[in-house]
Amino acid sequence: MTPEFFFGSPENEPKAENELDHVVYAGLYEDLPENAHLKIPDGTVEIAENAFRDFQNLETVSIPGSVKRISACAFSGCAKLRAVEFAPGCTEIGDEAFAFCPELTSFYMPDSVHRIGEGCFEGCAVLSRIRLSEAVETIGSGAFAFCFNLRDVTIPDSCYLLEFNAFASCYSLEAVKLSDNMGLIDESTFEGCRSLTAVDLPRRLHKIGRRAFKGCKKLASLILPMGLAEIGYDAFASCTSLVRIAIPKGVKELEDLDLFGGCDRLAEISFGGSAEEWESLTHGRTLTVERSDCSVATPRISILDLKFGG
Fold first, then answer.
1. Does the pLDDT of residue 198 top 90, yes or no?
2. The pTM is what?
C-alpha cells in the first residue's frame, strides 16, 4: 500500500509549494502486513510524533536524507522492527523514538544527527551494536537504558552532554570510551552495568555524579583524570571487583565517604595530593568500606604528593 502523501498545514490554508511541510503524521500509514517494509518518500522532512507507534507488522524502514527530525515515540513499541536504513540529513531523533523495539539488533546513525532524545532506545533488549553520529552533541537521559545486549560504546568527541541514566542497566556492556569534551558523568549513567570492565574517561572530566558507576561489578581498577574536582554519593558503590582506584589531587569534594560501600575487594586508594590535602578532603575522618557482608574494611591510602596536576 502506497499512501497518498500528506502536506501538513495547521490552518489548512493554501501555501506556495516551497513553503509546504512534508510530514508523515500518525494515521497516515496503516499497520498492515503489506506495510512491513516501508520506504519513506523523498521530500519528507519530519516523521511526526507517534507516526508508527506500536505497529505490529513493520519490520524495516528506509528514511531519506530529506527527513530532518524523527519526533517523539515515532517508532516506539514496534514489535517486529529489526532494521532502520538512514540517509544523512536527520539532525534530531526525539524522545523514545525507537524505545521498546524488541527485535532491533543494530542501529547505524548518520553523522548529521546532533541530538538523541530521552529514552530514545530504552528497553531495546536485543540491541547489540550502535554506531553513534560523529556530530552528536547531546544524548538524553535513559537514552540506552535497559539495552541488555549492548556490548561496547564509543561516545564521539562532538558530544558534551550525556544525561543521567543514559546507559543504566546495560547488563552486557563491557567497554566504554567517553568523549573528551564531557565535563560531567551524570547520576546513574552506568549504574547496574554489571559487565563493565573498561572505561576510557574524559580528560576534561570535572564531576562524577551520584551512583554513576554503582553496581559495575567487574570494574577492577580506575585512574581518575587529573581535572576531576567532585565525586558524588555512592558513585562507586557495589563495585565488588574494584581493587584499587587513583584519586587526583584536584578533587575538592567527596559528597560522602560511603562512596565505596559494598566494594568488597577495595584494598588501595592512591591520592595524588599531600597528606594535609587528604585530611582536608576527608574532614579528618578515616575512610572505611562497609562490605556486602556488613563487615568493615579500611583500604590503604597511598599519598603520592604529586607536584603537578589539579
1. yes
2. 0.90
